[in-house]
Design brief:
Length: 856
């Protein structure tokens, strides 16, 4: 039925009273995508919700539907008339069949699946037999809940429900999020404030945000949440903490989200008083069996354990010469009688590898360790494998281990929390990356074998499998940045249906979250889709990985930090070439871990795709890519392109002004402006680094030339001292100036840098590149001929206590009139341990139509 036809009916009617009240929590799911604001159109839905059963999940489903319908009906132009009677009916397929024996209720819905169906006319008259019935039927309790959310999603994205007949079920049984929260309330690699679960060593009193989080998770079909860091604190499973954790499980239970815990495999020794944690020791086995009994007595629907062992300093079975299978099976044996599972992480590697050894290769580790154990794991063990063989880089090939396990279930681990992808300060929509991984064809036995088919258990007939995202939500607006929530949303949607297209998911999320008109959400959808390619371009293209500080923040540029150490994220750049030789013929042999069809493609320089060339091959800078460019030229170009793309995001968002809530608009605008500035930091660091190392000129003459740039170290300085920078490439020309020396408290009142302008008279934007350190709020002022043109506070929370690429920040003073001879001056007032360090200023002509771009 078309929307215009709807107008012929006297429609929609009864706004039933809400059956409950929204949790009194400051942090709610409504602040993410469950806003139920609607597309503003007209649709048809019976407003009265009727639940057939009274189980807790069904009650949540009915409550949520009623709440959503109520909100949406207020937001939309609905036709109301008391003449329309109908109901939205919620129940399991059994309940629906029982209540409506004549309806063609499907008998073959898959677990957790649902069926949405409309019966009756669109606008039946009061008293007529032909009442409209919109059925939300679930295969089971969870299916009911997911069906209710699916219906709400249809409504919120403007779908016509009249005549709907929709069935759906999840592709994978395991759809979990992992939180890396510590008992003290901090979150490993979290960028959104403190934990919603823990504080001060204990579970928090206020768990309302946990319930709201579970609601958010349920809305996209996520059914498990592992609540503590995989670098697990053993005490969390002592009896006192388990009592507390039972409250967390209860908070999530109404939304069908089962709680899981990360465990320290040395717990029997650390908290159990045993002399050993040897997985084959009978006393250890008995300890775990009793511990698991205790857990299930408190949390009957406990989902299971996640295990990080023998990895990055965590204890593991290797201490006793035992295998990961021994450790996993020990826990699996304890959990099995209760229906629990073990997610054993394949992220096991030697972080003291010998970087001088050309055969050493961290990428090989997971396959080398776990593939030989295939078939040795208990049925309720799932290997949790990071999507790539290294560690959530801007781009990696798919882990070959997915193809190497035929008798072991596997789940793919990925990160919503943007550890190596901009830490939520950069907009990077990751669904396109995940989709590539899910669709990647591993060609097992010469047959088409997309990763998603392996995870679904179809490829090797496995009973378990799925997707797990390290989520990193915190108390700061869930993920800190509003647009970053698109990643959490997309994760859930892909874990439900890996066949969905990332741009479609982006549109869905945008429409529900921002509720803007079609032109508006097309803009946001486009921005999201541009963001990962842009980030890859200005950080680490050609499969070099994210060229960040890998021993510290994992945030700003730090190209050499990955070399000369045992962590194994090597790119092996030297004066002649770059890339890691992972071929079978001359390298580490990693390429040979793939099935032959795939191995062949990566092994050969001729066929290896450009985007992964340097992951598999060490090549001279002058090697020509398939694109026709040399490697070095591609490095230069991609960084300039990436920074320009980041600047485009600023413009695109600006075009939405007035059509988005002002607060949200301003928040995102500031973040994108920051990102555009930081993309320039990345661009310049990598370009100047490779320019110096290779000595090869940029065909476009940009490397080493920065029009309009005035270096702080060349200014007339008062108080400021010139410093040699570490790493050198993170400051323009390798030098900056600082007003005192962090991290000790700086005592200087203020310093200044002054230049005499010698360019043409005109109107300019002045970019001031400074370093915004954590502990203290330095202040800056920009003056022309002694007159203040701008001042601002350096109050951002960025990583690192020293000036470097993590905290190099750009502030643009717009529309300044200049003439030759003008004195341009930056004054920096340090505060705390922030020495108001300064890199340069850049005088950028205002284009005829000032686009607000920050690039030169
Ligand atoms: O990416 C690395 C992170 C660690 C993390 C580890 C892991 C929990 O830098 O912080 O530790 O991976 O996945 O275990």
């Amino acid at each position: 039925m078309t929307r215009s036809r709807i107008g012929f009916f006297k429609i929609c009617v009864i706004v039933a009273a809400l059956t409950g009240s929204v949790a009194a929590s400051a942090q709610t799911a409504d602040q993410a995508w469950l806003r139920y604001r609607g597309p503003g159109g007209r649709w048809l839905v019976p407003l009265r919700v009727h639940a057939l059963g009274n189980g807790p999940l069904e009650t949540s489903a009915a409550f949520e539907l009623q709440r959503g319908i109520d909100h949406l009906s207020r937001a939309s132009v609905l036709w109301r008339s008391s003449a329309f009677e109908g109901e939205t009916i919620v129940g399991t397929v059994d309940e629906v069949r029982h209540a409506f024996p004549n309806l063609p209720v499907p008998s073959d819905l898959q677990p957790e699946g649902y069926w949405l169906s409309w019966f009756g006319s669109a606008g039946s008259l009061k008293g007529s037999e032909d009442k409209a019935q919109l059925i939300v039927a679930g295969a089971d309790d969870r299916g009911v809940l997911y069906g209710a959310f699916a219906l709400l999603r249809q409504m919120a994205t403007g779908s016509d429900l009249y005549g709907i007949n929709l069935r759906s079920h999840p592709a994978f049984p395991i759809r979990w999020v992992d939180e890396w929260d510590n008992p003290d309330g901090s979150i490993e690699r979290g960028y959104a404030g403190r934990s919603i679960f823990f504080e001060g060593g204990n579970v928090r009193e206020d768990l309302a945000p946990v319930a709201e989080y579970a609601r958010l998770l349920a809305s996209v079909g996520i059914n498990g949440c592992n609540v503590n860091n995989v670098n697990a604190a053993a005490q969390l499973i002592d009896s006192g903490h388990l009592q507390q954790l039972a409250r967390v499980a209860s908070a999530m239970r109404p939304w069908g989200v089962r709680m899981a815990l990360s465990v320290d495999i040395a717990s029997p020794q650390k908290i159990g008083g045993l002399a050993t944690f040897d997985p084959l020791d009978p006393a250890v086995k008995a300890w775990w069996a009793a511990k698991v009994e205790e857990i299930y007595a408190l949390i009957p629907d406990f989902a299971g354990f996640t295990v990080k062992a023998d990895s990055e300093g965590q204890p593991g079975p290797a201490s006793y010469g035992r295998t990961p299978a021994d450790a996993a099976n020990l826990l699996a044996g304890a959990l099995q009688p209760h229906g629990g599972i073990v997610l054993y992480r394949a992220f096991v590697y030697n972080h003291h590898a010998d970087w001088r050894d050309p055969k050493a290769d961290r990428a090989r580790a997971a396959y080398d360790i776990f593939q030989p154990l295939d078939g040795k794991f208990a049925a309720n063990v799932v290997l949790q494998i990071k999507e790539g063989p290294i560690d959530f880089q801007a781009r990696e090939p798919v882990s070959p281990l997915f193809a190497g396990l035929r008798e072991t279930s596997s789940a793919m681990e990925l990160q919503v929390t943007q550890e190596y992808t901009g830490q939520q300060r950069h907009l990077v929509y990751l669904a396109p990356m995940w989709k590539q991984v899910l669709d990647f064809d591993l060609h097992v036995d010469g047959k088409s074998t997309p990763v998603k088919e392996i995870l679904a258990g179809h490829a090797f007939y496995r009973p378990l499998g799925g997707m797990v995202a390290v989520s990193g939500v915190g108390r700061d607006a869930w993920l800190g940045s509003p647009l970053a929530l698109a990643n959490l949303y997309a994760f859930g949607r892909l874990a439900w249906n890996p066949g969905l297209a990332p741009d479609q998911i982006a549109a869905e999320w945008t429409e529900q979250t921002l509720g803007i008109d079609p032109r508006g959400f097309a803009t946001v959808q486009k921005m999201l889709m541009q963001s990962w390619p842009a980030y890859e371009n200005y950080t680490g293209p050609l499969g070099m990985q994210t060229l960040t500080d890998i021993v510290g923040s994992h945030y700003g540029p730090g190209i050499e930090s990955s070399e000369n150490n045992g962590w194994g994220q090597w790119h092996r750049a030297d004066k002649n070439g770059v890339g890691m030789d992972r071929t079978v013929a001359t390298g580490t042999g990693y390429a040979g871990q793939y099935p032959p069809e795939v191995a062949k493609v990566y092994e050969s320089l001729e066929t290896c795709p450009d985007e992964l060339l340097l992951f598999f091959h060490h090549v001279p800078y002058t090697r020509r890519l398939h694109s026709g460019k040399t490697v070095i030229q591609h490095i230069y170009d991609s960084h300039y392109d990436g920074a320009a793309q980041a600047a485009t995001l600023v413009d695109e968002w600006a075009s939405l002004q007035g059509r988005i809530e002002p607060k949200l608009f301003a928040d995102v605008a500031a973040r994108l402006e920051y990102q555009a500035g930081h993309a320039i930091v990345w661009r310049d660091a990598i370009v100047q680094y490779f320019f110096k190392l290779s000595g090869i000129a940029d065909e476009q003459g940009r490397a080493g030339h920065y029009p309009g740039r005035l270096e702080a170290e060349e200014a007339r300085l008062t108080g400021y001292k010139v410093i040699n920078f570490t790493p050198w490439e993170d400051a323009s020309g390798g030098k900056a100036v600082t007003c005192g020396d962090p991290p000790e408290k700086v005592t200087q009142q203020s310093c200044s840098a002054e230049w005499t302008y010698s360019g043409k008279a005109g109107r300019y934007n002045i970019a001031v590149q400074y370093f915004d350190l954590q502990d203290g709020t330095a202040h800056f002022a920009f003056k022309v001929n002694g007159l203040a043109a701008a001042d601002w506070a350096a109050d951002a929370a960025l990583p690192s206590k020293r000036p470097n690429g993590d905290n190099s920040t750009r502030h643009t003073v717009r529309g300044v009139e200049l003439k030759p001879g003008d004195a341009l001056r930056v004054e920096g007032a340090p505060d705390g341990a922030d020495p108001a360090a300064l890199d340069y200023i850049e005088v950028i002509p205002v284009a005829e139509k000032d686009s607000g771009k920050n690039v030169n």
